[in-house]
Amino acid sequence: MKVEIENLNGHFKKLNIEIPADIISTRIDSHFKNIQREATLKGFRKGKAPMNLVRETYGPQETPRITRDLVNEYLNKAIVDNSFAPVASPEINLEKPVLEGAPFSFSATFENLPRVELKNHTGFKATKKDFVVEDSEVQETLKNIQQQMSKLEPAPGVALKKGMVAQMDYEGTENGVRVESTCAVDAFIEPGNGQLIEDFDNNVVGLNEGDSKEFDAKFPLTGDDGQDPHPLGGKTLHFKATVKKIFNKELPALDDEFAKRVGPFENLAALKTRVIEDIKSQKDQQQRREIQEQAIQWLIEKNPVQAPETLVNQQIQNLAIEAGMQLQNMGLPQDQIEERLKEWSEEMTTRANTQVKASLLLGAIAREEKIQVNDEDIRKELGRMATQMRKNPQEIVKDMQEKNMIAGFMRQIQELKALDWLIEKSLS
What is the value of pTM for the model shown? Predict the structure, then answer.
């Protein structure tokens, strides 16, 4: 076998492979002899048909099979011999069909996974803060629980104010087209609590039972967290709202009986203790996410690596599919979904580049530090996914097997362990 390697742009390679004529002849002869032994042709007993008739009968359907087997075998050999790692299936180009007595040539083009050389993967430093939960935070949480357990008392003849609740129908449209995520029937809305956007709240405050109002409302650029883009960010929609009933909220007293109604708490002090623990846990999780982001940025800065184009494009597609499904679940029509995805394309490209680089570098750390995935790691991750997806672990495993995602799942766990290793090293 002759292999000529062409280095193309970036990490792309082109292998020009030629298989000698004698190997081709031997392979074709062996292939048809195997068929001859099992062939049952009219006028001949099984295995007794002459070779020329076997080739004439089976040649058209078997030649592509012979070609495929030769390409797979010798391409894989060339890849292994040269220590290549294609990031996706190579693109095959056949110069001419397989012919007995003649050499067979083909080419394969693919993007090769770059070899990652770690320059610095142990110098990251992070400081973990010890959080103090302020009494105001505890009171705010208790207030939210109190709001959730409130009772609604009808308030006929009273105009809607912030802090009250209205049962209403509303419909949002853009250029006359209904936007499903901004429509509801018999919804219970409390103006001022962040349930809907501020422009909407301001327009319905002051309405009485039976009132209808049409108005325009502009959506903020970001969501509730103030960071992630709002799916309708910056858009102005036209609304029609009808108030059906108005209620006052009757809040329960914050006492021991209240705590017992919330859960298995003996008194209000026990509930406060649990609230403090939950707030600390949330802050710890938020801090860990921030440290993870810092670690990844540091790793990329200290260990420059070029993200393979193929992997970046695949990740952009994954991000677009995920974002598209979220927008679809919110009721946006397809044309608006496509418009949003175009607006987010630059951001998704940046995110995809970062994610691919992080994956390459974390994989390199796992190899360097001999970080392995064990059964306990798999059980933990499956348990986390099962809770998040509300499925049992067996269903998740079966789904991944059907979609050939097991290898990716194992790689993801290994990379997360490498990230944990990097962070623990920084805190020691």
Answer: 0.74
